[in-house]
Amino acid sequence: MVRRLTAGLICLVLLFGLASPVSAAENEPDPLSIAQGIIDWKKSDVGSSDGNLLSVAYLELAGSTAGDWYPVGLSRLGKTDNYAGYLAVLRDRIQERYRQLGKLSAAKATEWHRMTLAILASGGDPTAFGTDENGQPINLIADGTYNRGKTTPLGRQGINGWIWGLIALDTMRYEVPADAFYTREDILTEILSRQLSDGGWALDGSVSDPDLTAMAVQALAPYYADETEYRYQRKQGNTEVKATVRTSVDEALACLSAMQLPTGDFKSWGTQNVESTDQVIIALCCLGIDPLGDERFIKDGNTLLSGVLRYRQPDGGFVHSYDYNPNNPTSLPDRSNTMASEQTLLAMAALWRQQNGMRTLYDFRPEKDEGSGEAVSFSDKDKQTVDALPQNLTTEQYVTVMTLLDKLEQSPDFAEKEAYRQKLAAAKEQIAAIHAEIDDLNAQIRGKLYPFEKISPSDKKTVDFIVDRYNALSVYDRTKIEHWDDVVKTKTQVDNLLRAIVIGIVLGTVAVLLTVFLVCRIRKKRRRKAKEMEELAAQFAEDDEE
Amino acid sequence: MKKDILAVFGILLIAAVLVNGTHIQSVDEYYLTHIDDITPESETVTLSIRCDTILQNYDDLDPALRSEEFVPPDGVILPPAKYVLREGDTVFDILDRAVRYNKIQLEFQGAEESPFGSVYIQGIHYLYEFSCGPLSGWMYRVDGVFPHYGCSRYELHDGQNIEWVYTCDLGQDVGAEWMGGKQ
């Protein structure tokens, strides 16, 4: 509910199973091979077929909480993958969402922060990522951090907004302009002022939570060596504080150390789980502390890594927890899950970077020896893919078209570049039109076909129009129409009602005709009888005269 | 004479049909259009949607939402009503059907987009998570119990009572102790 972590902890499937005791530190696998296990598991989980994790199937998740963290983990481990595709789809999605009210989210600034990390990891620039409806470049850093307060407070969703805001702002040590809504110090002191008396942080209440404490430390880490004494009012107890960030962080580390369990891991929200441990590893790496060697974080010979490895599954992925939850009948025992695995992937990236002397996980400034990266070029295979695009496109080709168009824009010039650009631009337009049609059709159904009891024959035109438009869609796109069964039901109802009217009219007409027929016959009969009587009377009269 | 009697019969027959109604359906059509009708045999569940907690925390509410249009004065967005339970229906299916029938706005994150493999309800009636403070959002209760997992994973059975309630304090103000459960 309150950011992906808490949301996950609240709603995650809690798994039943026995923790296999993991061996002590000396024969623990290295972070890179643990990470590789996660990547392989995730590839098979999403069904990647082309060797990349960020395959066409995965790219559908770009811009969602389920999608954006894996590219961060992959890239920070130095893995090559389809980052260009990820950027292309994410850019289009963000541009689309920027045209809506509330943009990426009315309440959650962390949407901007998570996407900032995904963009940086994929090699993009979050300060100029696509364009808004006025043609201005979209600046996720400004809108999501120092100027967020111009629309909604950065902390609308709670402490997470401040923490991740600062992490996003410090990814490239972005400058905060003089006319910004918040200064860097504003954001920093908002975090500091929420520190609890036990040294940590929590979403609510007075008892610290390991995840939020670790994340606060990650945000504060760049200021650890800063000698500035910050003045702020601590929210708990309303006490005036004047202290360096280092004092705060040291208190937090003591708090985390005290919370660590003898098995090396942590409990959050009453549940012993892997993600809390992952976040503590990342926090220590951000500070430059060796998470596996620091005495404060070794309990009964168990390191943080031993704590994490308790949750590893034979398939390479990780489970959230082994605590059995009898309230959850749908829990699948011992099944790796997305969030536990992605946070472990990030923790392994943090460890691996530390062991290789690289910048910390969320410090995206270039490494000292980093080259300019390889040039993108539009290959013959890409051309073939464009040539093979069907005449009638569907939204199924969305990811492919966006990826190729982006690649083409970055590619050096070649003879048919303009022709391919036009082809792809036309394809993009066609798919955008289908997306709009699907959205509108869903809105029409929602707005016009309920409640069912009020449906009358006068709705026939509306219903038939919806059905015609549905039939005009491709089989794939039809699956995007919600509650089609309700449309079928409504159509049947309208047709049945109309049929009833037609039957009524036909029967009524027949009845009227029959009545007319009957009346005519009776009259005719009467007339004939009368005539016969007259003739008879005349005959009698003749007879009498004679 | 015979023809007359036949015609009279015909007229009477048509009159009888017209009086009884001409809404004649095939068996399939009947089932299709009556799938959500409540009969003595049908299995049903009850669903309601409330946001009373916002009334006590009005100061925390997003100023843009401070109107009876979004927060009804009695906190009732949808009073308890029965809905027919179809086979395999989850809490999410019933909510989705109920808001469609009653034309109530709903926004959710699909199961594949959310990291915990279930549909996540972001907003109902324009009231979203965090609309009323950092600890606010939608929760559901089935027969008085707050399940620990997503609404599209909860399969319902006959006679259950589902309540969607808005919390401003991580569930503690609606009686969900475990959500605010400190270690």
Helical fraction of chain B: 10-25%
Q: What count of helical segments of chain A does DSSP give?
A: 20
Q: Return the CATH architecture of the largest domain in chain B.
A: Beta Complex
Order of helices and strands of chain A: HHHHHHHHHHEEHEEHHHHHHHHH
Radius of gyration of chain A: 35 Å
User: What name does the CATH topology of the largest domain in chain B carry?
Assistant: Ferric Hydroxamate Uptake Protein, Chain A, domain 1
Summarize the structure.
With 546 residues, chain A is mostly helical. Chain A is 53% helix and 3% strand. Chain B has helices at residues 2-20, 27-33, 52-56, 91-101, and strands at 44-50, 76-84, 106-109, 120-124, 127-128, 137-142, 161-167.
What would your notes on this structure say?
The complex is a heterodimer of chains A (546) and B (183). Helix content of chain A is 53%, strand content 3%. With 546 residues, chain A is mostly helical. Chain A has a domain at 61-190. Chain A is elongated. The termini of chain A are far apart. Mean pLDDT of chain A is 90; it is low at 1-25. By secondary structure, chain B is an alpha+beta fold. In chain B, the strands form 2 sheets. In chain B, strands 2-1-7-6 form a 4-stranded mixed β-sheet. In chain B, strands 3-4-5 form a 3-stranded antiparallel β-sheet, with no helix packed on it. The longest helix of chain B has 19 residues, at 2-20. The chains are: A mainly alpha (546), B alpha+beta (183). The interface between A and B is large, with 72 and 58 residues.
Question: Mind sketching the topology for me?
Answer:
The complex is a heterodimer of chains A (546) and B (183).
Chain A (H helix, E strand, L loop, with lengths): L3 H8 L19 H16 L9 H4 L9 H8 L6 H16 L11 H12 L18 H7 L12 H12 L13 H9 L17 H11 L9 E5 L4 E5 L1 H15 L6 E3 L2 E3 H14 L16 H6 L28 H18 L24 H8 L10 H13 L6 H32 L11 H13 L2 H4 L5 H62 L1
Antiparallel strand pairs in A: 1-2, 3-4
Chain B lengths: L1 H19 L6 H7 L10 E7 L1 H5 L19 E9 L6 H11 L4 E4 L10 E5 L2 E2 L8 E6 L18 E7 L16
Parallel strand pairs in B: 1-7
Antiparallel strand pairs in B: 1-2, 3-4, 4-5, 6-7
